[in-house]
Design brief:
alpha/beta, 4-stranded mixed β-sheet
Length: 127
């Protein structure tokens, strides 16, 4: 059986500049060189060297729902929630209760919010 590791997630975005600013501001991601092509796709890096690729698709319809999301974990969950509040970013629990976290049956806290293209992001403390 092959062994795999997570490499990157790619999202289609309406305005790549707006999305890059959002992810840099919210998650403090570092922008790195797109080594795959000379396109306008922009790459960001998490501290574990996993990547987020933002692919400009200004004329595409982007459909999302909360069940399709990506999740990030942090040791500083409460500080991150305060950071979101300081940025004026709305968040909720799974049931869409505003400004509320959710504690799963396994004890993990989580919140959900959306990026500029309405992709859902979960942040939890399962670090």
């Amino acid at each position: 059986m092959n062994c795999f590791t997570f490499n990157h997630i790619a999202l289609s975005v309406k305005d790549v500049d707006v999305s890059v600013l959002f992810y840099k501001k919210v998650f403090k991601l570092e922008e790195i060189k797109n080594t795959a092509s000379h396109s306008k796709t922009r790459w960001l890096k998490f501290n574990d060297n996993k990547q987020l690729h933002l692919i400009p698709r200004p004329d595409s319809e982007i459909k999302t729902n909360k069940a399709v999301h990506f999740a990030l974990a942090t040791l500083n969950f409460n500080a991150f929630v305060e950071h979101l509040e300081s940025l004026g970013i709305d968040y909720s629990d799974w049931r869409n209760t505003p400004k509320k976290d959710y504690i799963r049956n396994d004890g993990i806290k989580q919140i959900y919010f959306q990026d500029p293209d309405d992709y859902w992001i979960e942040v939890n403390n399962d670090y």
